[in-house]
Amino acid sequence: IDTHGNNLIAENKKLFAERRDPIVEEICEHVHYIK
User: Which domain of life is it from (predicted)?
Assistant: First the structure.
């Protein structure tokens, strides 16, 4: 779970840095909530 979570977080950070969409922010919040 940790490895997949880290990969998802890295991808979300990339998308957030490129687009900065609120949707990506919501996904990051959900990921942190799961962890």
Answer: Bacteria
